[in-house]
Design goal:
The protein is an alpha+beta fold. It is built from 4 helices and 4 strands; from the N terminus they run H-E-H-E-H-E-E-H. The chain has a 4-stranded mixed beta sheet, covered by helices on one side.
């Protein structure tokens, strides 16, 4: 969990995508997240977290539905949404926290 704190306790927005390989909605989000990361460059981070490999973290954050997207900034959760989102929507939301 201490590594998680280091990931989210930064001055730029961090978008976390909780997914599993077997979830079809999660799979389609990979392309969207690649576009988001490319559009924002070094102004934000996009991190994908496989819930099967990080069950303790997923449980601690009460991730029930996949994909679940969470934005952190300065170690504080700013936004959370379950289900698919499009790239433009995510970029707009992240830019609110830049």
């Amino acid at each position: 969990m201490s590594k998680f704190g280091e990931l989210i306790d930064v001055e730029i927005p961090v978008l976390l995508d909780f997914y599993t390989e077997l979830n079809t909605q999660s799979e389609s989000m990979h392309l969207v997240l690649r576009d988001v990361a490319a559009a924002l460059g070094d102004k934000a981070k996009v991190i994908k977290i496989d819930v099967e490999k990080n069950q303790e973290l997923a449980e601690a954050l009460r991730v029930k539905t996949l994909p679940t997207l969470i934005i952190y900034k300065d170690g504080e959760m700013k936004w959370r949404q379950s289900g698919e989102q499009n790239a433009n929507t995510l970029i707009d939301i992240i830019q609110e926290y830049m």
